[in-house]
Structure formats: structure tokens, C-alpha cells
Design a protein that fits this description.
The chain is an alpha+beta fold and about 500 residues long. The chain is built from ten helices and nine strands. Strands 1, 2, 5, 7 and 8 form a five-stranded antiparallel sheet that branches. Strands 3-4 form a two-stranded antiparallel sheet.
């Protein structure tokens, strides 16, 4: 302990440090921050998307279309109503919000190290010393005498402070890492928000596609029932064979089974949507409505914008910043640790003069400690921090590559599915025409019922494929919006005050 002096008055606090050299040095060194300065590593960014839509104009970027509630681009009131419930009741989203609140509280916790810790208390002790204690016998000119038993009071009101000056930037690096972690947590929250909204939209459009398939199969079952009745009449009239009746019955029951299977699949999606909006599957009902809309044009914008529009990329970038700051924390362990420990208060044997000026005391001390030998512990911690940073860089670059892949995948899927939809529409028209011809040939006795069955199966398969392609186009458009970040912007991370206690924003 350096410069320890007990005094009689709080107004006479004196710190003895030769030449004030220690505090002067601390003030000079307080501006030092060890560790590398953070800069975002480079990542592979293409100049343009290979699958850019032909009807997209670069002057009309995607964020103008996708800003905010991106699901409204589909102009479906039922979908809009369900998406609004996600922000209110989705439990995965609430868990992510709570995780962000924890990360934000960790920033405030680490920021407290910028300031001294002050403790205050009061104690009262009454002590009786034994007459036979050691050194109780006192020798003097008149001989040896005994001090006898002694009873004393000790009343103390201490105020202690402990403060570690941030000389090497350890606290600053710790707060920097915590802030980057909190920003990464916020980006993770936005990733969860985007995922649950997109998952709901995907389930919704798949349900609508299955509604369209069920409608088609119901119509087919009615048509096949009439065909079976016609075949039965022809059989009773001696024109058709019993084989024809059996084949017509088989076609009808097969279509009915397919309709049941479609409804079973639709039920599963309905239950999944109930979970996403925070409702029990037992009470949630999605009204039936066939899919009859085409996907909107989703302009992807410029590839360079994707790094700022994907929350998962922003999260990995902030994780890199946190890992970089932790390198500085590890380096700070190589330097001395300074600590200031002033103390003051009142001490007396009587409550009468307990708070009087003569009862005051004050001390001020400072210490400096450096680790002389740790068997390589600090070097290992530094190597670990650097390896963690390298891992974060690799994760970031891999995430960027995956993001561009997802955008290209969905752009290609939308382009090719549009071509497939046009082709399938022509195939449906041709199959329906073939079925009409086969029915006429069968009614005229020119061909067997096998030709009709083949034409029926082909027409139904083509019609179901056309409906499924429509559903896939809607789903892929949702996945493209998700791959583009849903209109989110990484700049929102810098606007969040980590030390505030404001509620977490719950809307896009």
C-alpha cells in the first residue's frame, strides 16, 4: 500500500506519493488501448446477379418495394392479418427479444467498470478484554502492575471505494465486445423475425395451393361419378363391359383418396400456422380459399446492398467485431493492473462524539500488480482470442457466399417456374382436348374405356401439376424476399442505445 496516512479530520486528507509520479503516469497511460483496431474483412461480392429479372430496372431498388411489412406486396388481407399476430404472440420471437434484452443488460453491466465501486456501512462492537491476557502485566518504576479487565466500544461508519483505472483499455475493449455482442443479438432477433414471418407466408401459400388442389379433385370426383353413372348405363344397355365399370369405379375411388390426402396435408400446414401465431392448433381454423394469384415482381437490387440487408450477415459481422475486441482484452493481461482504494468515515468509542470532526478518518492507497509467471496462460488466452476471430471471419465469409446462393437459387426458380407454368398451361389445354376426344370416341364405340382412363389420368396429373407450380412460385417469391433480407437495413443496429431501458422494437 502506497501513501497510507491516518488523519484527524476529513478536511485534511493528504496523499503522500513522491512527486505524484504514479497518478501522473496513470493519467498519461489512460489513453492507451491495446489490441488491433477493428475493420471489416473483405468478402466476395459479385457485380451483378446472374439471374436478374429481365423486367427489373436498377433505378427501382427492391427496398422501395420491401420496406416495412413486406408481406403486404401480396395484397392478401387474410395473410396480412395473420402476419400481424406473429409480432404479438409468436413465442420464438419473444425468446429472441428476451435474449437481446440480456445482451443489452450485459453492456450496462460492463460499462459499470468505468466507475468506482463504493460501499458504505455501519458497525458497532463492544469488547471485554481479559485481565489475564498476554501483556496485561505492565512493568514500571514502582513495580509490576496489572491493567486488569478492559471493556471497550468501537463504533465505525466506513465508506470504502475501489477503482481500477482503465489504463490499458481492458474495460473499453470489454464494453466494445459486449456492445458488438448486443448488436449481434439484435441482428439475430431480426433474423428470427424475418424467418417466422416468411415461414408463416410459406405455410399460408402452401395451404392455399392445397385448397386449389382439393377444389380440383372435388371437381374431378364429380366428373368421375358422372362418368361411372354413364358407364353403368352403357353396361346395363349391353354396350359396355363390366371391365369398363370396374375401371370407372377405380378412377373415382382413386380421385377420392387423393382428395383426402390433400386435405390431410392442408391440415398439417394449418396447425403449423397456429403455432406461429401463438394459438393452440385445436382452436385455429384457416378458411378455405383456392390460390388464384401470381407472385409479384421482386427486384433484387444490387449485390453490394445484400451485405447491409441481411440480418444474419450483420450478426456474423458484429460477432467478428466482438472477437476482435477480445484480442485486446487478452493482450491487456500482459500489463500491470492498477487499483485505487480510498476509504473514509467516522470511528469512536462513544455515540456522543461518533460523528464529530475528531472522529473522522481517511486513507488513500494505490497498488500495481503484474503477473510475473503463469506458465503460458496469457499466451494461450491470446492465441485462443485470435483463433476465435479467425473463426468469426470464416463464418462471415461463408454466410455471405450462402446469401448470394440463396438469392440466385430463388431468382432462377422464379424465372424457370414462370416458363414451366406457361408450358404446363399448354399441356393442360392439350390434355383436356385429348380427354374430350377420347370420351367422344368411347361413346361412339370406336375405342375401349382404357383410352378414356389414360386421358383422364393424364389430364388430372397435368392440372394438379399446374396448380402445384403456382404454389411453388408463390413460395419461392417469399423465399426470395427472405434471402434479400425482407427490407431490413443494418444501419438500424447503430441507432440502438445499448445502455437504455427502452422496450425492444416489435415491428418491421
Amino acid at each position: 500500500m502506497i501513501g497510507l496516512r491516518k488523519i484527524a479530520s476529513l478536511r485534511e486528507v493528504v496523499l503522500w506519493i513522491p512527486g505524484g509520479a504514479l497518478f501522473t503516469g496513470l493519467i498519461i497511460l489512460a489513453g492507451c488501448v491495446v489490441g488491433p483496431r477493428y475493420s471489416r474483412p473483405s468478402a466476395p461480392v459479385p457485380t451483378d446477379y446472374k439471374e436478374t429479372p429481365q423486367n427489373w430496372k436498377p433505378a427501382q431498388p427492391a427496398d422501395q418495394t420491401l420496406r416495412g411489412k413486406w408481406w403486404e406486396v401480396y395484397q392478401d388481407p387474410q395473410l396480412n392479418a395473420l402476419e400481424e399476430k406473429v409480432n404479438i404472440s409468436n413465442q420464438s420471437l419473444k425468446a429472441a427479444e428476451a435474449q437481446f434484452a440480456q445482451a443489452r443488460a450485459a453492456v450496462r453491466y460492463n460499462r459499470a467498470d468505468y466507475y468506482p465501486a463504493i460501499t458504505a456501512g455501519v458497525s458497532a462492537t463492544r469488547e471485554r478484554l481479559s485481565a489475564n491476557r498476554p501483556l496485561a502485566q505492565v512493568s514500571g518504576a514502582t513495580g509490576t502492575t496489572s491493567t486488569g479487565a478492559v471493556t471497550t466500544n468501537d463504533l465505525v461508519i466506513p465508506v470504502d471505494m475501489s477503482y481500477e483505472p482503465d489504463v490499458w483499455g481492458r474495460v473499453r475493449r470489454t464494453v466494445e465486445a459486449a456492445r458488438a455482442d448486443a448488436q449481434a443479438s439484435l441482428a439475430d432477433l431480426e433474423s428470427v423475425r424475418l424467418s417466422v414471418h416468411a415461414e408463416l407466408a410459406v405455410d399460408y401459400f402452401q395451404s392455399r395451393e392445397l385448397d386449389a388442389e382439393a377444389q380440383l379433385l372435388d371437381s374431378t370426383v364429380s366428373s368421375y361419378a358422372r362418368q361411372l353413372e354413364l358407364t353403368n348405363n352403357r353396361y346395363h344397355g349391353g354396350v359396355a363391359s363390366q371391365v369398363d365399370v370396374a375401371q370407372a369405379q377405380t378412377q373415382l375411388e382413386t380421385a377420392r383418396a387423393q382428395a383426402i390426402d390433400v386435405r390431410e396435408q392442408r391440415t398439417q400446414f394449418e396447425h403449423a400456422m397456429a403455432v406461429l401465431i401463438g394459438e393452440p392448433a385445436s382452436i385455429f381454423i384457416l378458411p378455405t380459399a383456392a390460390l388464384n394469384a401470381a407472385p409479384p415482381v421482386i427486384p433484387p437490387g444490387l449485390p453490394s446492398e445484400l451485405l447491409e440487408r441481411r440480418p444474419d450477415i450483420a450478426a456474423t459481422e458484429r460477432q467478428m467485431a466482438s472477437a476482435n475486441a477480445r484480442i485486446g482484452i487478452a493482450k491487456a493481461a500482459y500489463f500491470p493492473l492498477f487499483n485505487l482504494t480510498p476509504s473514509a468515515g467516522f470511528e469512536s468509542t462513544s455515540i456522543v462524539n461518533w460523528l464529530s470532526d475528531p472522529s473522522a478518518f481517511a486513507t488513500l492507497g494505490a497498488s500495481a500488480v503484474v503477473t510475473a509467471f503463469d506458465a503460458g496462460r496469457r499466451r494461450a488466452a491470446s492465441d485462443q482470442a485470435r483463433a476465435a476471430y479467425d473463426q468469426a471471419v470464416a463464418n462471415y465469409r461463408q454466410n455471405v457466399l450462402t446469401a448470394y446462393q440463396e438469392v440466385e437459387d430463388n431468382l432462377a426458380a422464379l424465372r424457370l417456374l414462370e416458363d414451366e407454368s406457361n408450358t404446363e398451361t399448354a399441356a393442360v389445354a392439350a390434355a383436356e382436348h385429348s380427354l374430350a376426344l377420347s370420351n367422344n370416341r368411347y361413346k361412339g364405340g370406336v375405342t375401349t374405356y382404357l383410352e378414356v382412363i389414360t386421358a383422364q389420368a393424364t389430364a388430372l396429373a397435368d392440372e394438379r401439376t399446374a396448380v402445384q407450380i403456382s404454389g411453388r412460385r408463390m413460395v419461392d417469391s417469399v423465399l426470395l424476399i427472405k434471402a434479400l433480407g425482407g427490407g431490413w437495413d443494418a444501419a438500424s443496429l447503430s441507432t440502438v442505445k445499448m445502455e437504455s431501458r427502452t422496450p425492444v422494437p416489435s415491428g418491421q
